Amino acid sequence: RVLGYVDPVEGGRLRTSQVFVGHHIPPHPQDLQRHMQELVQWLNSDEALQLHPVEYAALAHYKLVYVHPFVDGNGRTSRLLMNLVLMQARYPPITIRKEQR
């Protein structure tokens, strides 16, 4: 498994409860669908696709972590998205060690 343990009840579903991540308060669960649609639109936009691949990958990672759409696995999913963007541009994937996060 790429993402390690994933709760089968929660896996693949947008969260239904409010979460708090340090000092960051992610969007309310009722707004997640809209935020995710906006993220996908941005990922496919001319604006995003014209960025340098490393900048595009970093922003994709940041934007997904900011929305924090899942109960668990947001960081892992964001790092996978970042590496997908990098690898599609023929860059090597980045490994971020736990102590560097």
Automatic annotation (TrEMBL):
Query: Where does the record place it?
Result: Membrane
Give the principal location in a single coarse category: membrane
| Fido domain mapped to chain residues | 1-101
InterPro entries referenced in this protein's UniProt entry, alphabetically: Fido, Fido-like_dom_sf, Fido_containing
Q: Which residues form the active site?
A: H68
Q: Which GO terms describe its cellular component?
A: membrane
Is Repeat among the key words of this record?
A: yes
Q: Which UniProt keywords apply?
A: ATP-binding, Membrane, Nucleotide-binding, Repeat, TPR repeat, Transmembrane, Transmembrane helix
Kindly list the GO molecular function terms attached to this UniProt entry: ATP binding
Where is ATP annotated to bind? V21, G22, H23, H24, D72, G73, N74, G75, R76, T77, S78, R79
Q: How does it sit in the membrane?
A: Single-pass membrane protein
Please report the name of this protein according to its UniProt entry: FIC domain-containing protein
> Which species is listed as the source?
Labidesthes sicculus
Recorded name of the encoding gene? Ficd
